[in-house]
Amino acid sequence: CSNKIDDKATEYFAQALKVNNTLSYISLRRNKIGDQGAENLARMIPFNRNLMTLNLRYNDIGNRGASYLVKALMLNSSLIRLNLMYNQNTTSDADWNGMKYEKLEANDKKRKKLFLAILNSDKKNSWKCSTLAVTGLPRAGKSSTVRSLLNKSFNELWSPTEGMKISECEVSKSNCWKHCRENENKYSSRFAMRILIQDKQYCAYPVAIPSNDTESDSGLIGGSERHTSISTSVADKDLEMNSETAAESSKQTQEPASGEDDINEHRPTIIDKENDTQLTKLLGNFDEDEYMNVKRQVDGHHFRIMDRGGQSTSDSTRNISTHSTPAGMYLLIFDLRQFRDQDTEAMRSVSVLLKSIKSCAPAARILLVGTFMADINQEKELSLVNKAITQLLNADHNNSQIVHNTDEQLSFFPIDNKGSLGIPNVRKKIERIVHKDKSLRKQVSMKWIALLDLILSKKSDSVSYLSFLEVKDLAKAHVEINCSVELEEALKLFHNRGMISYVTSTEAVKGLVILDPQWLLDSISKIVRHDGFLYDFNRNEIDNIGLADDLRMLSEKALVSRDFLEYVWDKGEVDFLLDYLKITMFLSEWNVHKGDESWFLIPCLLRNTYEKKIDGLKCIFDFSKGFLSSEIFHRLTCLIVSYCSEYRSKYGDVAECLVDFNPELYRNFASIACVPGFQFQLLYDSDLNRIIAFIENKTFAARTLHVIQAMLLKAKSDTVIMGAGTGWEILLENDITSDLIGYVSDRR
Fold first, then answer.
1. Compositional bias of type Basic and acidic residues: which residue ranges (predicted)?
2. Cα–chain-centroid distance for residue 141?
């Protein structure tokens, strides 16, 4: 606007707009466009199928120019706003004005009708949505990196993230990252709009071109291909039609578009009528502003950015395993200064996190991102860091998931969040990876996305999960998904894209659909923590309600009472969360002491380390070729405690007379007696990446081996806990020579 554009300039505008398929809004207000300029612009209107708004206010257009524009409007199906106010046409023909508003309204109704038709269909399109998980070392700047990616200012006082924080982000074709609130997302409406914009069947739905031909079909444009073949002379001739012909054209354009009836014929009943208020509001009305946003970002991408907090490396590995997706992308954040200073603990922690990601997310791409770049003063120091990272990566032969910084010839991406240094390079690399990800091109049904909105609509302060049967009823009633196999495929897709948590590894968890993964991880993080770190509870409040002794037991013995859990969690959520933590082996029931109150063991909260010598033959479970974390050892401890507790419950007082059921538990060691002579003694050797079982009574050697092997296989079957890539070898100690022999070769 206000560019002194005259009639001559509009010729070039018109020629360009005839073939333009991206612009949806054009403002030429406050220029010098007269009747001839209006006529020039009118000649492009029948050809353009994307323009929605044409603003010509404050020009010099008279009645003649206005009539040309309105006549051309009769040949267009996309324009819904044509602003001619404050021109010279103050005495414009009322009939033309009426026709203009009638046609604009008809176009608007047609688009909304098509939108609802698509929303109710099973049309397919690619769903450009994926996860971007941010994990890393404590205090390395994980949350600050997320803020930088989202164009938020650096905050010196930002508190460390507890659990997980999910952010929604739209990345447009112009490399603009826009943070959006979760409640702004109507996935169904945006998905339907993308189909409306991208599918030629809808973006160029047919309009009637009045002509002097006797055959009524000769003027129909069936799509963009036929549209481009219309000659300018035909359009010129059409613009000379009289008002009666134009009015007839307006009536023809209101007839159903070809293909619309095909959609309606077999559509499921998501929305039965255009004004079905409840579901229309749920799945999304046709909003013009949102439609414009979708048009601008039609080739963009939607990210669910998961900022996985952690006060320790163990916390970070727990967050990875609790809610991981097999694909997506990971940013592993580390402090460049620690690698510059050859901090061996930091290097070991990065190695552990890398193995954890590879184990739990074998198809994910991983970017190593080093923070505090401004504190790395010389290129020599950067080279030193790169050498350390390269050596760390070379120690693991499988580095196919690692994304290298080819632009700077580094194995990592150096950034500084305070000055936003290096952030554009990280964004660019992420966008390149997404663009090449073939899995994101998979065609997804409209009714699947409608189901997602229906599922998420059930989320509230009192509802955090649904049973599989509840979801099945929703799918059957509203989107006509009657097949359980199809429903499971849809839920797996939603899980992989970070929308819900749907774990299928065990039958017990398989029946649950977690509506808010952030709620789940936040709830777990209040109780399940690592390396002895407790959640920052309000000690005064706990004293006042009489739970001080319970907190002491949690801190000193890693034992939590049900009363304390009912204080930490909402009372209505305790049973579900307890079941979930038992199933995922984060805790086990503690039946060592009799009493009315229920207690539970959380092994990851054990603080002390066992350092004494242990007697007995060794049975070694060697994870040196795979991945072993303290988490796996703690899960194994839970399983053994449960195994022995069940034995005690089964045999009651008889068992209690036979053996002392008071386990000896440490961060790295567990000694638990089951029956006389049958005692589990397990040591976690983090340096050599192995678990050692010490067997004092040879009579129970085979039984001990088989029980531990079965428990590890049970944990492995849950890919969320150990990852599909986790494996181990079994080595048995010869009681005569003390040599270690492979279990398979000695099995006979």
1. 264-274
2. 21
How many beta carbons lie within 10 A of that of residue 176, not counting itself? Answer: 13
| Domain 443-522 fold | Arc Repressor Mutant, subunit A (1.10.10)
Q: Which residue has the tokens 């990252």?
A: 177
Burial of 580 (0-12, 13-18, 19+ CB in 10 A): buried
Residue type, 689: N
Show the DSSP H helices in 120-242 as ranges: 142-149, 187-198, 200-203, 224-227, 232-238
Q: Please give the torsion angle defined by the CA atoms of residues 292, 294, 299 and 300, in that order, rounded to the nearest 10 degrees.
A: 120
What architecture is domain 608-742?
A: 2-Layer Sandwich (3.30)
Block means of pLDDT (10 residues each) for the chain, 748 residues, are 86 89 87 95 91 92 91 91 84 70 91 88 92 91 93 83 82 79 74 85 42 29 29 43 41 41 42 47 73 80 85 56 72 96 92 85 92 89 94 84 94 94 94 90 94 91 87 92 94 91 66 85 84 81 94 93 94 86 86 73 91 92 84 89 76 51 86 80 92 90 90 73 71 89 61
Residue 599 pairs with which residues in a beta bridge?
A: 561
CATH topology for 125-186+301-441? Rossmann fold (3.40.50)
Q: What is the DSSP string of 374-401?
A: GG--SHHHHHHHHHHHHHHHHTSS--TT
- Cα 63 to Cα 34: distance, rounded to the nearest angstrom: 10
Domain positions in the chain:
7-121+201-253, 125-186+301-441, 443-522, 526-604, 608-742
- 607: Cα separation from own chain's centroid: 35
DSSP codes, 260-280? HHHHHHT--SS-SSTT-HHHH
Cβ-based neighbour number of residue 459 at 10 Å: 17
- How many angstroms separate the Cα of 153 from the Cα of each of 159, 419, 427, 452? 14, 9, 16, 33
